[in-house]
Design brief:
Layout: H1 6-29, H2 33-36, E1 58-61, H3 70-75, E2 82-85, E3 93-94, H4 95-100, H5 106-112, H6 127-133, E4 139-140, E5 143-146, E6 149-152, E7 154-157, E8 160-163, E9 168-170, E10 176-178, H7 189-263, H8 274-277, H9 290-313, H10 315-334, H11 341-364, E11 368-374, E12 386-387, H12 397-400, E13 405-412, H13 416-419, H14 421-455, H15 468-507, H16 514-548, H17 552-565, H18 567-600, H19 618-656, H20 669-674
Main location: membrane
Keywords: Antiport, Cell membrane, Glycoprotein, Membrane, Transmembrane, Transmembrane helix, Transport
Family: Belongs to the CTL (choline transporter-like) family.
Length: about 675
Amino acid sequence: RHCTDIICCVIFIVVILGYIALGIVAWVHGDPRKVIYPTDSYGQFCGQKDTLNENKTILFYFNILKCASPVVLINLQCPTTQLCVSKCPDRFATYIDVQASYRYKPDQWNYFRQFCKPGFNNPRKSVAQVLRDEDCPSMIIPSRPFLKRCFPDFSTKNGVLTVANQTTFKDGRGKTRNVTDLREAANGINNVLDARSVGMKIFEDYAISWYWILIGLFIAMIVSLLFLVLLRFTAGVLFWIFIFGVIGIIGYGIWHCYWEYDHLKGIPGSDLTVYDIGFQTDFRVYLQLRQTWLAFMIILCVVEVIIILMLIFLRNRIRIAIALLKEGSRAIGYIMSTLFYPIVTFILIAICISYWAVTAVFLATSGEPVYKVMANQTLCKYANLTCDPETFNTTNVTKLCPGAQCTFAFYGGESLYHKYIFIFQLANAFVFLWLVNFAIALGQCTLAGAFASYYWASRKPADIPLWPLFSSFGRAIRYHTGSLAFGALILAVVQLIRVILEYLDHKLKGTQNSFTRFLLCCLKCCFWCLEKFLKFINRNAYIMIAIYGKNFCTSAKEAFFLLMRNVVRVAVLDKVTDFLLFLGKILVAGGVGVLAFFFFTQRIPLFAQEAPTLNYYWVPLLTVIIGSYLVAHGFFSVYAMCVDTLFLCFCEDLERNDGSTAKPYFMSASLHRILGKKELSPKKA
């Protein structure tokens, strides 16, 4: 063994160091509080500890009617003054009414002014000046907090939209308006709030049933292990039962089509052709024609003949595929530690995802507060221009545009770092894809090395090396990091292009240019196919790397041509393996799902008292079913890698050896018998 693809290894290490540096720079400049806490018009966080807003955790909008939708409120800045408050308003009130009665109803004034700018306590100031300077809101309406922001407390009464059981409100400017005017500013909030209550119930169900969910997943793990072990004995039986079942079903379909064809004989109109009746939206019309059933019968006969001919001519290759499946089960039985390696891959990918997500958040919040002029007058030439809140009152803007304010707009910056935030985000995504593909490649190469050591052992299991999985992992890291990184890099480039194409497709979805949509669709399809092809090549290249220790390009070339020389065997093995593993996943997920259904619906008398009382029994049920499928997928992915490795070893064995004493076969006795050899030549230890 020697180190392979050293240049790519060095580049990979440098990129990782650069990625760490990018994370540090993002951590220095970023501030996730900008995502966690709402920001008022002064650039201060609501609810931040050790500040004046520590107990003011909710953002209040002076005039929510100026906000187009909740999306604008949450992601952008609404063109109205925003303050941090401790609670949302719980009543209707206008500044005009409160000011007129502040002398004999001071409680109303004290309640209203908590929604005014901090320090404002001058009810004698004219209403026009207060509204111009936006010292106080012109009105307050009953609201409730959502996403730490005050939204109107909508409800529906007898099909009529209301706020606090009222259909109208005063806008504080002398007009009475209907609450439907608030609909656009808070569109969809009711549905989201309802979803929030459903979410709380789902959380409660998880809190009650998590213990039983884990038990269900543990059962799925045991069943998956049993299925893999039993494949040694049942792979052939399961496959042939399925094949003959398909043949029988198609045979019944042929008989049924003939029966319908004969039954319609002599019935008026049944002898018409499809061309005679033309296109009909009701498909049942075609079922009244003899020609339809004759066509069905011919199609089914052709399919039946094709399947039977394939079984006749490919019977030996099918037997080899089944034998390799059994051999894979035997190999896993000798190297049981491989079944738990997916946990390592899962941990590595989880680390990559976490680092990418944290870095992306810090990059997205790597900006300084940017303030802009907000003016009530539409003709103010300074509107939306940047400003400095500390010096704003000394400028001429307030004189030329009465009531204009310098309010917080967004986070950004003009420095070189801030200009290239998008490039950094793109680099973050690219390196993330590279690392994830490397983690997957490392797992595939490690498993391939372990299973190859099983195949090339002269006497099984006596000659299998001690700790084959750990030895293979060490070889992959020590010698082949560069090769694995090279393969992962090629795949990451294609995946990044696919991400960019998806982004462009999303942005151009509303365009009417048919040629652009067609071109994007073709490009997406081509790169999807390219990604699938590269994954297939990479997987087999990693197997060859694990066996021979050559570089990536050489291994990929040798694997590709080896597979092309055995293309029929590849196709048969691939389909047989896919079918049996898919059947196993369905059996595991379906079996555990049925058991979970009877348990959570309290239909098992023995455990009726133990079953928790749930709001939605489908919450833990779906979790168990999906989790069981993923658990089975994790175990079966090891099995699929084992079969692929053994297949390449088998093909290499056939090409390099002839069964003589000098060049004995390393394949098992069952494979040897299928090939029609007289006797397995003895191999020296």
